[in-house]
Write a structure and sequence with these properties.
The complex is a heterodimer of chains A (about 110) and B (about 110).
Chain A: E1 5-7, E2 10-13, E3 19-24, E4 31-37, E5 44-50, E6 53-57, E7 64-68, E8 74-78, E9 87-94, E10 102-103, E11 107-111
Parallel strand pairs in A: 2-11
Antiparallel strand pairs in A: 1-3, 3-8, 4-5, 4-9, 5-6, 7-8, 9-10, 9-11
Chain B: E1 9-13, E2 18-23, E3 31-38, E4 45-50, E5 55-56, E6 61-64, E7 70-75, E8 84-92, E9 105-110
Parallel strand pairs in B: 1-9
Antiparallel strand pairs in B: 2-7, 3-4, 3-8, 5-6, 6-7, 8-9
The chains are: A mainly beta (about 110), B mainly beta (about 110).
Amino acid sequence: DAGVTQSPTHLIKTRGQQVTLRCSPKSGHDTVSWYQQALGQGPQFIFQYYEEEERQRGNFPDRFSGHQFPNYSSELNVNALLLGDSALYLCASSLSNTGELFFGEGSRLTVL
Amino acid sequence: DAKTTQPTSMDCAEGRAANLPCNHSTISGNEYVYWYRQIHSQGPQYIIHGLKNNETNEMASLIITEDRKSSTLILPHATLRDTAVYYCIVRVVGGSEKLVFGKGMKLTVNP
């Protein structure tokens, strides 16, 4: 049983560019959450998707957007990249109304 | 902001029990205590969670005080692979409540 998978694992972009990160949830999970983790900090909640809708959002600008597909997979899009967007982006999946979140290994984004 | 406070770091000898404390004095009645850990360059890993009773699984034990204002995660026989950042989090179960991570506590298991 595959866990949460994310792609790509590493990528480098330049300021002003756009990036799309992808996540496939653990089998049987219907809820996907995205987190940003800067170096030396704990993960920060970006948003959560359930039934293809954004259910909750953290304190991130509109440059951060997402999508969930009918098969529960999800994308995170970041527009107009800034140097400060450099971070590890983590996807977590869960079964709605249960507590355990399962995290992927993350996508490490470097913005130059 | 995180609703928990943890020491910044802790050392433990390999093979000994590691007792990781966490304070959550403002915890609400419907909030559970969760523990996750993050080994370097990996995603966080779920360890255990509990409401008010002590819990045990194959990874660890969770001891929650009677007033629920603090808890202790116990790794009974720490190994080098337990070296990680450990996060104590309080969370409502059953809703869309997000996980609010603090900076966590770095546990270093020494040979």
